[in-house]
């Protein structure tokens, strides 16, 4: 059983190291996407850990923006092109900390090879308030005073956004544990 932990973080290297030490039983490799706004030298204590890799194509992550998804996609691409065979990729943040041991987690995943783990809700039936996330205009990547007022004005005067393809919408959690094949399928589809 081999698991790639994709850690998207902007926070303390000490905190991230503590999590890595808790999980580092030989079955986990750690791929760290450090927010581009953060100086990579802040994490130099992790440079010499043999199974820790830093995502090369770093993104300037904006809260609630697509940049978080792009950071995960860049990590998935690097993991799947690494030449290492993984059974699962697990997306977590630098603020996470496992409540179960590495052995427990690896054993659980070993018993569930062939399954994907992701929380989701159907927009139409279970999470209707989420429709605003896709049918309204959002300016999360803009850095200007009054951007929220500008969003309100644009959304008042313009028609709702339409999906580029017909599909049933699901979503809820940013975090997941997927097979590399499934994760790469999502990246390629998007």
What does this structure look like?
Helix 2 packs across helix 6. The chain starts with a strand and ends with a helix. The relative contact order is 0.18. 32% of the residues lie in helices and 20% in strands. It is globular and about 55 Å long. It has a single domain, classed as Spore Coat Polysaccharide Biosynthesis Protein SpsA, Chain A. It contains six helices and six strands, in the order E-H-E-E-H-E-H-E-H-H-E-H. By secondary structure, the chain is of the alpha/beta class. The chain has a six-stranded mixed β-sheet with strand order 3-2-1-4-6-5, sandwiched between helices.
Number of self-contained structural domains = 1
Q: What's the overall geometry? A: globular
Order of helices and strands: EHEEHEHEHHEH
CATH topology, which one?
Spore Coat Polysaccharide Biosynthesis Protein SpsA, Chain A
How are the strands of the largest sheet arranged? 3-2-1-4-6-5
Helix content: 25-40%
CATH architecture heading = Alpha-Beta Complex
Structural class: alpha/beta
Which percent band covers the strand fraction?
A: 15-25%
Separation, N- and C-terminal Cα atoms: 28 Å
Number of helical segments with 4 or more residues? 6
CA gyration radius, whole angstroms? 18 Å
Q: Under the CATH scheme, which class?
A: Alpha Beta
Strands, total number:
6
Average pLDDT confidence is: 92
User: Low-confidence spans: pLDDT under 50, at least 5 residues?
Assistant: none
Major sheet size, sense and barrel closure: 6 strands, mixed
CATH superfamily: Spore Coat Polysaccharide Biosynthesis Protein SpsA, Chain A
């Amino acid at each position: 059983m081999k698991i790639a932990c994709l850690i998207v973080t902007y926070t303390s290297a000490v905190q991230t190291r503590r999590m890595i030490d808790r999980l580092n039983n030989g079955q986990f490799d750690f791929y760290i996407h450090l927010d581009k706004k953060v100086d990579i030298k802040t994490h130099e204590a992790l440079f010499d850990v043999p199974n820790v890799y830093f995502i090369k194509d770093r993104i300037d992550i904006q809260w609630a923006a697509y940049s978080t998804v792009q950071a995960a996609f860049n990590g998935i691409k690097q993991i799947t092109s690494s030449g290492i065979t993984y059974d699962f990729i697990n997306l977590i943040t630098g603020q996470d900390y496992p409540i179960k041991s590495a052995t427990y987690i690896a054993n659980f995943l070993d018993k569930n090879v062939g399954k994907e783990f992701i929380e989701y809700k159907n927009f139409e039936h279970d999470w209707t308030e989420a429709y605003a996330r896709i049918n309204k205009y959002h300016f999360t990547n803009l850095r200007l005073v009054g951007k929220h007022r500008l969003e309100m004005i644009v959304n008042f005067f313009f028609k709702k956004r339409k999906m580029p393809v017909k599909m049933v919408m699901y979503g809820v959690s940013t975090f997941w544990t997927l097979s590399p094949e499934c994760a790469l399928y999502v990246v390629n589809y998007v």
